[in-house]
Every structure is written in structure tokens, then in C-alpha cells.
Design brief:
This protein has 9 helices and 8 strands. It has 263 residues and is α+β, with helices and mostly antiparallel strands.
Length: 263
């Protein structure tokens, strides 16, 4: 179970983010990144062969939301976008060193963004073998909230019409300890010993539990996306959040997933 200070700190952070998301004036914190072409400009290489995603793990959730639950290569509307950042060799079409990757699944017609597998350059640098970590140059474009938003934009047909539709954000199979500990505490507070299959358990974002989830690394990433891209999204906010287990093949543990409901 998470220590009380972990949970309380998450509630405090989530409360602040919630206040920021409801402010009408966000010009000072609007993101500088607004176009999908900026991914390549900041060293992100699109992996065209990274197409597979076990969308079956959330098929029930998508079905209940009346949203297509097939990938585009199976005749559906969901497309996976995978970018890597690192030392890339064009001749060999490969990376010598991977310094972060971001993989999302998007359904622009339904306003759905599914965060699959993500490792930011900052976290990748922490595991780098370089003797002097200070020699590692981090790209300016490095936060999930910005990269995932630009990947989502890339799934839309041109010309892009604003406001951008974004109604649901999934964070799949979370293994980050900072988020995991807080989610563990929440389900235990509600008499659960494990993460339940969809429909799981849902909290109003204004509730203490909702604020705690918003204050986790995975919740704050969603909050920052809505805050810093509010102009493109036209002041979207989170209404509620659902904790559930999205089963994948060969799972050895019931990792938690989150669904943020956006209005």
C-alpha cells in the first residue's frame, strides 16, 4: 500500500492541476509544439513497421462506448503511431542507441487516444550506460503530453480542422511505480484486492480519488496535454476517470489501466 504521504502528495498535485485546467487564461503555459512535423524536427523517427497492438484488451470498453474496436489493418479505424528517439543511422535504417520511444493508438473520428508503450528521453537517460549523464542532450520535445498530442494530430486527415476532437484517453497497463502505488491504495480503500475487468471502478475527477489519480505521473500527463493544448482542443476538461484491468496475452500480473473521460 502506498504511504500516506504519497497519496496525499498526489491529491495535492491533482488539485492544483484541476484548478489550472479550469482557468480561462492559459496563454502563459500554452505549449510551443503545435504541428506533427515537429516530431521529425526534434529527432523522432517514425517506425512504419511497428503496427501491432492488442486492442482486444480494451475491446469491451470501446464497445460499451460505441467506438470501433478494430485496428486499421483489420478493417477498423484505430491506427498505431510509434516514434523512436536516439542515434539513428539512415544507411542501416536502424538506431545505434535508443533514447526514448512513444507509441499511441488513435481513432480521430471518435476522438480516442490510447497510450500503449512509452519511455521518455528523460527516463531513458536515467538508464543510459554513459559515464557522464550530463553529456546526454535531451530534446526540447520530450514530454508525453506534447509528443502524444502531436502523434494524435498526425492521425487526422489534412487540412486539420480545429477544435480537435478528443473525448477519451486510455493509459494501458501501467507499470510506473509512482502511479501504481497510488492506484493500489485507492482500490484497497474501496475494498478491492485486485484490479477488476471493465467496467472497473469510476471516480468523479472532483473526488479525492479523482484528484489523486490526476496527480500521478500518468494522470498529470493527461492534465498537461489538455492544459497546454487548450486552444487546439477548445478548453476540454476531464470529467471522470476509470481504473480497470485490460488483459493482454501472456500477462503475469493484473496491471492497472486508466480511462479519462473528457468533456
Amino acid at each position: 500500500m502506498a504511504r500516506d504521504q504519497d497519496y496525499e502528495a498526489a491529491v495535492e498535485k491533482g488539485t492544483k492541476l484541476l484548478q489550472m485546467s479550469t482557468k480561462k487564461t492559459k496563454t502563459s503555459i500554452e505549449s510551443a509544439f503545435k504541428h506533427s512535423k515537429e516530431l521529425a524536427q526534434h529527432g523522432y523517427h517514425l517506425e512504419t513497421n511497428q503496427t501491432s497492438f492488442e486492442i482486444e484488451c480494451i475491446a469491451k470498453a470501446l464497445g460499451d462506448l460505441n467506438i470501433d474496436h478494430k485496428m486499421i489493418y483489420d478493417g477498423g479505424k484505430n491506427v498505431r503511431t510509434h516514434h523512436q528517439h536516439g542515434v539513428y543511422t539512415a544507411e542501416a535504417d536502424e538506431y545505434k542507441t535508443i533514447r526514448g520511444y512513444f507509441s499511441q493508438v488513435s481513432n480521430p473520428s471518435a476522438g480516442v487516444l490510447i497510450a500503449d508503450t512509452n519511455l521518455s528521453p528523460s527516463h531513458a537517460a536515467a538508464f543510459d550506460d554513459a559515464k557522464d549523464k550530463g553529456d546526454i542532450d535531451l530534446p526540447l520535445l520530450r514530454h508525453w503530453s506534447d509528443v502524444a498530442f502531436l502523434q494524435y494530430l498526425s492521425s487526422f486527415h489534412s487540412p486539420l480542422i480545429q477544435p480537435i476532437s478528443l473525448n477519451y484517453i486510455f493509459r494501458i497497463q501501467i507499470q510506473n511505480s509512482g502511479t501504481f502505488l497510488v492506484l493500489n491504495k485507492i482500490i484497497k480503500m474501496h475494498g478491492r484486492s485486485m484490479y477488476e475487468l471493465w467496467p472497473g471502478i469510476t471516480f468523479d475527477i472532483q473526488s479525492e480519488e479523482g484528484k489523486a489519480i490526476l496527480g500521478t505521473p500518468h494522470g498529470s500527463g493527461v492534465a498537461w496535454m489538455l492544459i497546454q493544448h487548450s486552444k487546439a482542443l477548445r478548453e476540454r476538461i476531464i470529467k471522470k476517470v476509470t481504473i480497470f484491468y485490460a488483459p493482454k496475452k501472456d500477462d503475469l500480473f493484473r496491471w492497472p489501466s486508466l480511462l479519462f473521460w473528457i468533456v
